Amino acid sequence: MTLVAAHYRFLVLEQIRIPIALLSSALFPALSLLFFVVPFDYSNDPAAATTSVAQLIVFAVMTSFLFTFGVGVADDREKSWDPYLRTLPAPAWPRIAGRVLMGATFALLSVIPVTIVGALFTSATASPLQLLLGLVALVVAGLPFLFGGLAIGYSMPVKVALPVTNLVFFPIAFGGGLLIPPGLFPGWLQGVSTLLPSRGARDLVVWAVVGTPPSVLAVIAMGVWAVATAAVAVWAYKRDQGRRFH
Questions:
Q1: Distance separating alpha carbons of residues 70 and 23, to the nearest angstrom
Q2: CA 138 – CA 33 distance, rounded (Å)
Q3: Which pLDDT tens digit goes with each residue over 103-119?
Q4: pLDDT > 90? residue 18
Q5: Strand (E) positions, 36-160?
Q6: Which of 102, 122, 165, 184 sits CB 3.0–4.6 Å from 49 for a disulfide?
Q7: Residue 219 belongs to domain spanning
Q8: How far is the C-alpha of 106 from the C-alpha of 16, rounded, in Å?
Q9: Is there a contact between 116 and 26 (Cβ–Cβ < 8 Å)?
């Protein structure tokens, strides 16, 4: 655990030295809420307002995980420090655990501005129990994006990882109903939406906070995505380790 704490501290310090990256990931979801949700009058429908806030909270976590792990890991692999760490006589798990904890920390920080804007400028409401359940659901909902980011980061150079992450995150966010409620989708898009990891993540968090029953197929699909991306992430790490250090 001492090694985990050391890696975590180092990675956090490294991240906060680039404040513009932190501000962009934290403010973009909040600005989306401010511009695309707040102008509509949800004063007579707190559930709809809460659902919109929950969707953008999932969007914030998804964006943070994909870019922190996808682009961040790929960038670290091309620097001299990370390869040096991987040659030391220490297990890999403290380094990976420290990175995951760092990513979770900044994902949580990206949620705070969205929550504040939702609390101040919309009629969204949630009890302490609902907030706790929402946080637990958010941890589970973030797994496909955490593993997906690691899979991208360990399998691609940074020049490829950056455009791939950009190409992946927006269609998944839109198709999963994180920017527009999926009830507004046409029938064909509804079918596609339920197969995306973002839809299951969105439905799970909304269910925890608002009580709206999720699509069972979407939640199952999210679980399948989590297992599949975890398997790809493990394969990509082992391949990278084998190519560069054996």
A1: 18
A2: 18
A3: 899 888 889 999 999 88
A4: no
A5: none
A6: 122
A7: 2-245
A8: 10
A9: no
8 A C-beta contact, residue 67 and residue 165: yes
Alpha-carbon distance of 114 to 120, in angstroms, equals 10
Contact 68, 149 (CB under 8 A): yes
Tell me which residue of 212, 202, 204 sits closest to 172, measured CA to CA.
202
* SS3 category, 7: helix
The pair of three-digit structure tokens given for residue 60, joined into one six-digit string:
């914030």
- Domain tally, the chain: 1
The pLDDT assigned to 244 comes to: 57
What dihedral angle (degrees, nearest 10) is formed by the CA atoms of 129, 44, 60, 168? 130
**How much of the chain, in percent, has pLDDT values that exceed 90?**
46
Rounded distance, CA 42 to CA 121, Å? 10
User: What is the pLDDT averaged over residues 43-61?
Assistant: 89
What tokens were used for 64? 């943070």
